[in-house]
Write a structure and sequence with these properties.
Layout lengths: L17 H14 L5 E2 L14 H12 L12 H13 L5 E7 L1 H13 L5 E6 L3 H9 L6 E5 L5 E2 L1 H7 L4 E7 L11 H13 L3 E5 L24 E6 L12 E6 L2 H17 L11 H6 L4 H20 L4 E2 L8 E2 L2 E2 L6 H12 L1 E2 L1 E2 L12 E4 L4 H17 L4
Parallel strand pairs: 1-13, 3-4, 3-6, 6-7, 7-8
Antiparallel strand pairs: 2-9, 4-5, 8-9, 10-12, 11-15, 14-15
Amino acid sequence: MSDGIIRPAERVANIKYAVRDILVVADEAKRAGLEMLYLNIGDPNRFDYETPPHIVEAICKAMKDNLCGYAPSDGIPEALEAIREDAASKGIQNVQDVFVSNGCSEGIEIALSALCNPGENILTPSPGYPLYTALVAKLGLVPNPYFLSEDRGWQPDVDDIEERINDKTRAIVVINPNNPTGSVADRETLRRILSVADERNLLVIADEIYNELVLDGAEHVPLASLNSEQPVLTFDGLSKGYLGPGLRVGWGILSGEAKRVSAFQAAVAQLCRARLSSNHPEQYGIAPALRDKSHLPALREKLSRRRDLTVESLNAIPGIQCVPPRGAFYAFPSLAVDPDKEEEYIADLVRSTGVVVVHGSGFGQRPGTAHFRIVFLPPEDVLSKAYALIARFLAEHPPR
């Protein structure tokens, strides 16, 4: 006989999102009256960054022009044209399809839903963005992480990728620049990944949402630009480089030999039609964004200053070592603490200081290591205060 309880699906039990979950602990610190310094979420608009005016104006004009109905399922023509144009400028050729999504997150979910059956797997970077592990759980896939090499500046470990491929593997995910480490993959590493994928007939998902935020003049190599025949699905959007995460505008670019991707392309289009369309007025910000990137030099310079402060401050704290990030706005320092106590230690840090950072295991990491992720978006005075509090906490509670 039923007990009258509405029970959730079992798949939800394995869905975690550490970036938001840490806020439960942060609320304890807030209730205790501590000043809160949030270094946990990559939302530029919470700090001293604004969406470029020409993007906002284009979206507002679309709304005033009553362009608030459904859009074409794949996206409005002017946006798709601009995306193709920008892809070509980056050396991405043989583009078979472009589609707009409600942020990259929806696009990635559409792609994985179109590609994978329950029980199959995709190779995801570790450390990596928690969305992928959440979708693996949601879609009934088998987790299959590969490691990044901290001693090589967090480059993908291609040998590890090769060892983990099995007959149920469907794709390799590459996040470049990487969230949470801020690493930028070098050209030779990317070539090797493409070679492995080609040999094993795997799709490569190139998550390049931070591609415009490469620091120190480092080179960002669009993965799809290295082989026009290999199936690659590249993701980008307005969230990061264009400072509009709440606009929820992303897009996918499917490139490669037509006969190799046509069936997958049709499946993606089918799912795009099923959800009707992505945000309509916001799509009118895509073409202006991609055709006027004049805000980027100042943005990169600001992030470089805050990155330098972060690396210098963290590396001066006994018990912490930080590989300098070369892109995005994250750092992933190591912590000399028992890995089994990492999450507890970071929670204690948040409760004691009000500095909200995220435990490294929330992003994945090699067994036997401990880390935490810092977002260095805030102004320098906020970062300096946060790092001083972290240093004091470690001095009073030596990691062990």
